[in-house]
Amino acid sequence: MNMNKNKPIVWTISGHDPSGGAGIAADLRTIHCFAVEACAFITANTVQNSEELLTINPVDIKILEQQYQLLIEDKLPDAIKIGMVATDEQIYWLIEKIAELKADNVNLVVVYDPVAAATVGGVTTEVTKDALHHLFSVIDVLTPNMTEAEKLTGIYLGAVDDIADKFSTFGINNTVIKGGHTDEEFCVDYGYQFSEPKQLRSKYSISSERINTDYTHGGGCSFASAIAALLSKGYLLRDALTITKAFMQQGMIANDGRIQYYGAFEQTELPTKPSIFPQIELTQPLLSYPTSPFAELGMKRDGNQSLGLYPVVDSIEWLEKLLPLELTIIQLRVKNKPENELDAIIERAVELANNYPNTRLFINDHWQLAIKHRAYGIHLGQEDIYQADLAKIQQSGIRLGISTHGIYEFLLAQQLKPSYLAIGAIFPTKTKDMTGQIQGLTNLKQILNISTDIPVVAIGGINLTNASDVWSTSVDSIAVVTAITQAECYIEATKRLKAIANNYI
User: Fold this and answer.
1) Which of 28, 75, 80, 458 is most exposed, with minimal Cβ within 10 Å?
2) Residues 410, 423: contact at Cβ < 8 Å?
3) CA torsion angle 50 37 406 203 (round to 10)
4) Over its length of 505 residues, how does the chain's per-residue pLDDT go in tens digits?
5) DSSP structure class, residue 170
6) What is the DSSP letter of 141?
7) C-beta of residue 408 within 8 angstroms of C-beta of residue 279
8) Class for domain 9-280, per CATH?
9) CATH code, 308-502
10) pTM for the whole thing?
11) Binding residue ranges for Mg(2+)
């Protein structure tokens, strides 16, 4: 077995389209766009062009089995994308093989784009609903368009919540329902995740302006392949969906205005323009809605200024130690204290910070007390924005920072126009379990590319060893916790971290 794998590997299992628009051809082009290696199983040779599908000629199971036996010796998958499956026999073969692969790799992700019928019209496959329901047992992410979702569930009139609930009864815990086949002005995609054991449902929706083009042949194949490629690289589904949405939008824009010919969807380079990325809908109503941007920090992302080093500490004692060290920003994060004690702590923290007018003091979470004692700023976690009175914070003139974990949360928080945005965890951290949410430098760079002029703070696992690498991304600030609080000499550690920052400011 080849153990020197440099890239993630995605297997695509689908039909061959001789016109080159859909199926395996679209899958391979898309997967390669994301710097992922692709291996292909062809389930059927079709006879079709951009206008009509005439016949589907299934590939014999023996041939698929031979391909499988060779590939498991050399190129085991990190993700599998399934498109057209031609027969029930192929489905039951797939179920058996996926079960074998998952027994050896619990992280294997299987994405299924249920091709109910070719968009060009014509014949359909011989697959039965009963076989499909058995296939659902090994599927991790289902990506139907609205028409396919309605046909598979028997639920119509665009009742997306009910459709997702129905899929969950089939064993599908993650469903993305694509909105490209509706006639709305905006194309809205819906993501649903059901968590065990209580089957709690989380929902997110993202939208992009509809593009006037008929160059969409193979769009569904490309969508599912992009999701699979990104999941193979460790992205959370919500982030994979967000990037995929931008990828699809960019491909549509490449042929904007070209209509009356059903051309192939154009797979382009990875999206980087902020305008390409979707609008993120709030997952639940806010207590209140700010009517204007939050107060600024006195700097923008123009490369001429920087917030510098941003220590996060948990006590008045640490504030007393660090405030004299000429910092530009610091955060007090106090947990598990009674309300009366918190009140006194935050009052004292603001008093201390007022003696250092060049240092911005942010209070974590306790926004009511921060307003009461006139702190410089408030920092909220992503989940806390729904419990805080954002309009009151904005009207008070106090600055607001928001934590984000990935591109989906970043775009959502950016829409609220806070004073700064924090992104993390960049590296594994001792202070919080961030399993599945480690961003790394590559993701940080990608997010900085689509950021507006709101300052961006990197946080999570940053220390003297890797601080230079983080600063080299052109981030506006790095937040640290244990790099200072657990250092042998906090003064020396702070001076060295500030010196590193000064090399990039």
Assistant:
1) 75
2) yes
3) 50
4) 455 578 999 999 999 999 888 999 999 999 999 999 999 999 999 998 877 888 899 999 999 999 999 999 999 999 999 999 999 999 999 999 999 999 999 999 999 999 855 554 555 677 898 999 999 999 999 999 998 999 899 998 778 999 999 999 999 999 999 986 666 788 999 999 987 644 457 899 999 999 999 999 899 999 999 999 999 999 999 999 999 999 999 999 999 999 888 888 999 988 999 999 999 999 889 999 999 999 999 876 555 567 999 999 999 999 999 999 999 999 999 998 988 899 999 999 999 999 999 999 999 999 999 999 999 999 999 999 999 999 999 999 999 999 999 999 999 999 999 999 999 999 998 766 666 678 999 999 999 999 999 999 999 999 999 999 999 999 999 999 999 999 999 999 999 999 999 988 7
5) T
6) E
7) no
8) alpha beta
9) 3.20.20.70
10) 0.93
11) 365, 384
Contact status, residue 371 vs residue 343, Cβ threshold 8 Å: no
What's the CA gap between 478 and 457, in Å, rounded? 5
Point out which residues pair with 40 in neighbouring strands: 12
Report which of 403, 430, 442 is spatially closest to residue 310, judged by C-alpha positions: 403
- Burial grade of 181 (CB within 10 A; 0-12, 13-18, 19 or more): middle
Amino acid identity at 50: S
Distance CA 401, CA 6 (A): 37
Asked if residues 460 and 425 have their Cβ atoms less than 8 Å apart, the reply is: yes
* CA pair distance 203, 216, nearest whole angstrom: 27
Known binding site: residues? 331-335, 364-365, 384, 403, 429-432, 461, 481-482
Tokens of 164: 């997702």
Domain boundaries, the chain: 9-280, 308-502
**Which amino acid would we find at residue 359?**
T
- Antiparallel, parallel or unpaired: β 329-332 and 360-364: parallel
